[in-house]
């Protein structure tokens, strides 16, 4: 009797509270987090927006009121001044795009193969090549030895390869990618593929590369940024204008504008009045906007791989 009564009472018992899965966030906390992230995103976007607004602000308004989100007078003088060299600008944009794509693809391929060799415990010379990579991180030969090797030994002076090869391989990225492979790919997967008859190249292309896409995408993004923003190698090795990358061309234009503005008083009254109207500040911001816009548009394509990398880290942790 007592057991049946207990059974009836227990069957009539209902849990009225809402079940919450482990790790879930309450609606209030989710709303607060969304507000925080929106504010943070706005703070990150404000400098870029300000740069664009200044680039379309008339130079006289900047001289009178400084930088402002709400300028008194707008104008496209800066962009007109920059695109007067439209053919050279288009050519430099193409050079930068080619160097960025070719350098990133080549560098990522080399660094992935290098990291894969260091990842394999059965590789005979793994410690030697690990030491060489770490040694180059700690000790750098410097600009002068690099210049001598690239120009005299490799013959890269005034050659588009001079914009690609010096940035092609980064030892730090290799070590980062090796660590990612260690944490995301188990050695037993490689052993199983070898038992099935796959060689090292087949394993790298069919197994390692697809499973390490988040790490490779991260390295690819860093390499893309390095190639797109590079102007120093062009300063060292490039003399022909048709090989100028975009960043170096914009730096040359800005240097000429600054020189004209500083020395306008020495060129006579008429020249002084003419050069005072040169859009020094707005053109500087226009160059920043032009040079950063392609990378800003390319970044969302890498975002999902970063999310996958975070998920892999969470699972492994």
From TrEMBL:
GO biological process, one term: transmembrane transport
Gene Ontology cellular-component annotations: plasma membrane
Record key words, sorted: Cell membrane, Membrane, Transmembrane, Transmembrane helix, Transport
Keyword Membrane part of the UniProt annotation: yes
Domain of life: Bacteria
Annotated localization: Cell membrane
Pfam families xref list: BPD_transp_1
SUPFAM superfamilies for this protein: MetI-like (SSF161098)
InterPro entries tied to this protein: MetI-like, MetI-like_sf
Gene3D superfamilies associated with the record: MetI-like
ABC transmembrane type-1 domain span: 93-299
Spans through the membrane: 28-56, 93-116, 128-148, 160-181, 201-228, 285-302
Topology in membrane: Multi-pass membrane protein
Location, primary (coarse class): membrane
Family: Belongs to the binding-protein-dependent transport system permease family.
Protein name, entry field: Carbohydrate ABC transporter membrane protein 2 (CUT1 family)
Species: Anaerobacterium chartisolvens
């Amino acid at each position: 009797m007592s057991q049946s009564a207990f059974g009836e009472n227990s069957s009539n018992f209902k849990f009225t509270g809402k079940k919450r899965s482990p790790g879930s966030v309450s609606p209030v906390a989710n709303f607060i987090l969304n507000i925080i992230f929106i504010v943070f995103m706005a703070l990150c976007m404000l400098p870029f927006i300000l740069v664009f607004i200044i680039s379309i602000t008339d130079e006289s308004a900047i001289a009178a009121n400084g930088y402002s989100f709400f300028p008194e007078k707008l104008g496209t003088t800066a962009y007109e001044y920059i695109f007067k060299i439209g053919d050279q600008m288009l050519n430099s944009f193409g050079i930068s795009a080619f160097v960025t794509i070719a350098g990133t693809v080549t560098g990522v391929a080399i660094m992935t193969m290098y990291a894969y060799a260091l990842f394999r415990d059965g590789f005979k010379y793994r410690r030697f090549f690990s030491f060489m990579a770490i040694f180059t991180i700690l000790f750098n030969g410097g600009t002068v030895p690099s210049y001598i090797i690239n120009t005299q030994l490799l013959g890269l002076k005034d050659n588009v390869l001079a914009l690609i090869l010096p940035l092609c391989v980064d030892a730090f990225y290799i070590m980062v990618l090796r660590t990612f492979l260690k944490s995301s790919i188990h050695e037993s997967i490689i052993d199983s593929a070898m038992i099935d008859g796959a060689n090292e190249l087949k394993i790298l292309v069919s197994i390692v590369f697809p499973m390490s896409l988040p790490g490779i995408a991260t390295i690819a993004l860093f390499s893309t940024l390095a190639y797109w923003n590079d102007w120093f190698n062009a300063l060292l090795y490039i003399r022909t204008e048709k090989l100028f990358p975009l960043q170096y061309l914009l730096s040359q234009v800005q240097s000429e504008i600054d020189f004209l503005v500083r020395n306008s008083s020495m060129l006579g009254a008429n020249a002084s009045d003419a050069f005072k109207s040169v859009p020094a500040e707005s053109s500087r911001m226009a160059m920043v906007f032009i040079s950063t816009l392609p990378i800003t548009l390319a970044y969302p394509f890498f975002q999902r791989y970063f999310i996958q990398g975070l998920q892999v880290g969470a699972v492994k942790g």
